[in-house]
From TrEMBL:
This is FAD/NAD(P)-binding oxidoreductase. One of its GO terms (molecular function) is oxidoreductase activity. It is an enzyme of class 1 (oxidoreductase). Pfam families: Pyr_redox_2 (PF07992). Keywords: Oxidoreductase.
Length: 424
């Protein structure tokens, strides 16, 4: 049997719940359906802190049902197909749901299989990833029990959610080993698909100091392709030709990722490195059901939803909006970006419903809170222009204790109590 909603939201994560709550605060009588298959809701930004041993993993998970706004309907299904010309989605159960307006926000897909061997060894054999609820606690086990040797941290050559997370955990591990007095026994490697540590020059300078102080060896334009847990080796490809440092704006990815856009054919040198500890981050792309749908941007290599990067309205279907990690907006994919995107979607969608021109604009704002050691954090905030966009009246490129408190205490509280409820 077909159901119909005035507004249908695909994905009840950070973006879906924020936007649903804000819409209902503005207009009580809306009929909103939220399609979300999971009974659990995760606060993913705290997984870095879990991996660093200072946050309880159980505090990052809550019941989805407790956060579905009153007056919205939770549809416990997974969308498998979009049919935007007939204003319908089809779920994997076969159920069809129609809508007047659609908001697409099912997040990003973790392509674990693109690193051979990773999935099978995740959470054991001294291989972990903070990008997974089950393995994040194991990251801390590895770091805590490390007695020295080769420690490897990887960052893929695709845009990812929270571009800083692959190196945040490395700085905390280094600080822990320094305080434990074993840093001189550690050979630390950062294997990154990017060309610089951070694409915004002001914040990059701070991180380069941290890399130097930790004696971290950095391999740029290096794409991890395999992890052999038995032989404890990692394999990555590097560019055969020297890459030029990309600081210019990209059409397809946020400048902060600084991914080398040279052709894949340049990736010819294969390097094998032994490791004793490995923190890996998988390549990421749009969920497959988006990639193959008419909503996808055919020119985007990762298959994201095609939106106008300022209005968040779909470029071809005027009654469709998208936000969060699934869009082709060339911003950094974070919850912080969603905080600025959600009000834009709400305003513009209500204007479309009222047959008015859309007026709200998203400027590409994103934030990346990067701990440089236990107790100190640099809050990197920036926009589409790759320019710092600092909230506080001090130089945020300098790591501070107050920003550490913001990340470890204030933001988790804000997320559950304000952001998901549409009041922040
Ligand atoms: C380790 C780590 C550290 C991070 N650190 C930070 C940080 O410090 N600061 C920050 O701002 N951000 C951070 N992030 C990023 C942040 O968590 C994401 O950007 C944010 O959660 C994206 O929200 P979203 O709603 O787009 O996707 P999600 O929150 O992932 O939600 C997507 C939802 O869609 C649902 N879904 C999936 N498939 C379907 C389907 N077929 N049909 C319907 N629903 C579906 C999912 O079940 C999920 O509930 C971090 C992420 C990670 C993993």
């Amino acid at each position: 049997m077909e159901k119909h909603y005035q507004i249908l939201i695909v994905g009840g994560g950070n973006a879906g719940l924020s936007v649903a709550s804000q819409l209902l605060r503005k207009r009580k009588g809306l009929s909103i359906g939220i399609i979300e298959p999971s009974e659990n809701h995760y606060y993913q930004p705290a997984w870095t802190l879990v991996g660093a041993g200072i946050f309880d993993i159980q505090k990052t998970i809550r019941n989805e049902k407790d956060f579905i706004p009153k007056n919205a309907t939770w549809i416990k299904e997974a969308v498998s197909e979009f049919n935007p010309t007939s204003n319908k989605v089809i779920c994997s159960s076969g159920k069809e749901i129609s809508y007047d307006y659609l908001i697409v926000c099912p997040g990003i897909q973790l392509d674990w299989n693109k690193i051979k061997g990773l999935k099978d060894t995740l959470g054991k054999n001294n291989v972990s990833s903070n990008y997974n609820f089950n393995s994040a606690p194991y990251t801390w086990e590895m770091i805590k029990n490390f007695k020295g040797g080769i420690a490897v941290f990887t960052n893929p050559s695709t845009p990812i959610k929270c571009g800083g997370a692959p190196h945040k955990i490395m700085y905390l591990a280094v600080d822990y080993w320094r305080k434990k007095g074993i840093l001189d026994k550690c050979d630390i490697h950062y294997i990154s698909g990017a060309t610089v540590i951070f694409g915004v020059p002001e914040y990059k300078a701070t991180l380069e100091e941290v890399l130097k102080k930790g004696n971290i060896k950095v391999h740029y334009s290096a794409n991890t392709i395999g992890i052999d847990a038995n032989n404890k080796t990692i394999e990555f490809e590097t560019k055969s030709t020297p890459s030029t440092i990309k600081q210019s704006l990209s059409e397809t990815t946020a400048a902060c990722y600084s991914i080398n856009e040279a052709s894949q054919a340049d990736l010819t040198n294969k390097v094998t490195l032994s490791f004793d500890l490995c923190h890996a981050v998988p390549p990421q792309s749009a969920p497959d059901f988006i990639k193959k749908s008419p909503l996808a941007d055919a020119s985007n290599p990762y298959g994201y939803v095609e939106v106008n990067k300022n209005t968040m309205q779909h470029s071809r279907f005027a009654n469709v909006f998208a936000l969060g990690d699934c869009t082709n907006a060339p911003c950094s994919k974070t919850g912080a970006a969603i905080r600025k995107q959600a009000p834009v979607v709400v305003t513009n969608l209500l204007e479309v419903m009222d047959k008015q021109p859309v007026t709200a604009q998203y400027d590409g704002y994103s934030a990346c809170p990067i701990p440089t050691q236990y107790g100190k954090l640099m809050l990197a905030e920036f926009d589409y222009n790759n320019k710092p966009k600092m909230t506080f009246p001090f130089d945020q490129a300098k790591p501070r204790w107050t920003m550490w408190i913001l990340k470890t205490k204030v933001l988790p509280w804000l997320y559950w109590n304000k952001i998901l409820k549409g009041t922040a």
